[in-house]
């Protein structure tokens, strides 16, 4: 997986036709490029990708089937799109097994808050469904795409895995693997997938050309393979004829969808079910929707390793404000929540719906100033960071090793609901 | 590796310009295609590939340095071309370590005599140099290129490995591995190689196009990786800084050279020495130089599993004769040894130089008839087959498992010669 967010150095401004009449036409979203002039148009992305919008009815069914409250990421449209999520709810309802698969391309030593989004949601799904989870660390991909050594990508992997574990994944039900270590076990499925996809298709899906390395062309089947359950013979019995029909649900940022469109095309041709997907929006950079979080600009994102002082400074100085130019104007017209980064961050990290609504109402009507909203956000982010750093400090090398060891998982398949 | 001989179903007549004035121009040799109208012109191949002919001086030096008699495959020009073989002799002479690497694409259940050629010679080299040997079974390649299942390619692998072991490789010094099992350990080197080669280069070297599967484009680094010594951490200590500078010598049929031209290009760029190569000619089909041994025509080759009766029939009926049309003509003009398959087979399998010369002299002067030469060959081939089948019967599953297990090898690095 690439980073699910905008910190990829490969995210460069892409040549677009400046004469285009539809300004939303210039958005480009793939695993290596997320760019747009006017912010991503997510409805348009759903059209482009052919996925399905998550409507309130589906969320209601999710709550009915699971008996659990929908996560605020779902209710607030942060996870906004899906493919065959209904099949997963059907499977859960009828007691059929499935598992979760997500991943991360370890491109730097420390994660930022944007990186957390798919993992926070994945942990929620694991808690709700009580199913196994596999997390692929694509250090091979990062090595192939970036100017780093294998050794660096391995070091990033360990650091990132500790941050992921700190989110509270169940050690009994979660297998985290580094491609550089684990690819061998998936190799039979990798060649099966690789045999099915022509170079023409790879080029069409990912936009590679003949000047790219053959390593890059070899990679898509590696990210596809974990969506096939028998890529994990230690988790799902290879001798059980039912193993191949275990479903997979992939929570990820929508830029990863091309990999799984490809996977969904191939899976039925080699005897598997299509994996289901649930897509998140992109977590914005502090500077606003149209900017990118960049590993080379540490002020574009809040890192999990930032001190309270750094969190305070970054939000105070850099979080793009939807407030008005003067206090008088602001009190008259209120803030534009659509572009206000502090408010958007609150939609991610302030779980209390009523409080969020209250802040939104007051801010958009001018009763709250940007500085006040920023202070609310700063308190929340410092608290989350503090808790995260404490949790991460408890993640020992031993615990990390266990999460990453090839072992049986201890999970109950869902039972049939009344 | 592909089969080192002409039994590949991918060896199809290739479109060539019929108007070409130089009839030798139509020869095409790559890992999947060996075709020519007038027999392969090996001198021309050396020119095309940029390798070096093995001259008598080099053979003399080989004998001097090793203190061993040159194998008749060397003396008779069956191994006829090389790259940097001199570097290996230098290394041996100065007590520097190196290892041997060869391989086989297991495309059918039983091997024929042509398949044996690189292995017979490799065993000789192992005996002479007393160095470790790694044998790659490219069942992934066969699955990617042919209409077979993974399960079939795995079954072929085991059958072929037993035939290989039966040739007498030293269990203490030989590691035989199936790519489907072992690729994980080589994966760090595979991605390092893959990062260095563009698609343009792959297309130039192998002639793939965009309608080929991405699995095929992913394969060349997999065949290259065993030429890097740290692909075998159980054999060559990964913590020893000298490991990366251990040389590798690859005995193979010349159709495999494109893989290793690529490897030789990449190796120095990622910190390794270029592997050395020693190339064999193609073992001819019974029907003659311009025909191919085909898995779909069992009469085109003598298989190691053939009965004495089958060996007798195949040679009697199908071995292309350089003899004359009538007995009278034959006694007058003698046989054309250049095109006589029985005589050529004798150059492979009749070790006695004097006897071979005597047969050649008498046959080419008409004193021996084709039927008499065929009878000599039949006796030899039946004897070799018998011995091979007996040896193969002694190759138990346990022995096979040991050869294929990831383990330390027990070998002495060469010592400095006086």
UniProtKB/TrEMBL annotation, chains A, B:
It is an enzyme of class 6 (ligase). One of its GO terms (molecular function) is ATP binding. It is found in: Cytoplasm. This is Tryptophan--tRNA ligase, cytoplasmic. Belongs to the class-I aminoacyl-tRNA synthetase family. InterPro entries: aa-tRNA-synth_Ic (IPR002305), Rossmann-like_a/b/a_fold (IPR014729), Trp-tRNA-ligase (IPR002306). Residues 1-26 are annotated as: Disordered. Its EC number is 6.1.1.2. Gene3D superfamilies: HUPs, Tyrosyl-Transfer RNA Synthetase. Coiled coil: none annotated.
